[in-house]
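dumping this here so i dont lose it
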């Protein structure tokens, strides 16, 4: 074993320099990691804000579309009611006209109507009687 004090001192100095270099490198890496984490956090925050804005826009668009659909449906229902009312009135008028025409025919031709009714009753009676 060689106990050379100068060599031991050089090794001690080299070890101290290495320690300082490692500590300095560790501090620098820590600073870089902290900066990278801060940058990542800022970018994530920006992404979240952008996502919130886009979600808000989509929500507003959906509300607008729903309101437009509701308005359109209301108009269509109103038009359908109007059409149904018109069809009902038209059918009622035709039924009334036919009824009045039928009654007028019976008043003008009572004999024909009674004979037709008797013949129709006899035909129905013969077809339904038991054998």
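and the seq i came up w/
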């Amino acid at each position: 074993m060689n106990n050379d004090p100068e060599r031991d001192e050089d090794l001690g100095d080299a070890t101290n320099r290495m320690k300082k270099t490692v500590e300095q490198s560790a501090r620098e890496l820590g600073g870089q990691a902290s900066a990278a984490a801060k940058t990542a956090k800022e970018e994530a925050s920006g992404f979240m804000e952008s996502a919130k804005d886009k979600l808000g826009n989509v929500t507003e668009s959906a509300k607008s579309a729903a309101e437009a659909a509701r308005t359109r449906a209301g108009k269509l229902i109103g038009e359908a009611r109007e059409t149904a009312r018109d069809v009902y009135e038209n059918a009622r008028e035709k039924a009334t006209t036919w009824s009045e025409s039928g009654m007028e025919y019976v008043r003008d031709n009572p004999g024909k109507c009674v004979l037709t009714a008797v013949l129709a009753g006899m035909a129905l009676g013969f077809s339904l009687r038991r054998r």
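Residues 69 and 75 are 10 Å apart (CA to CA).
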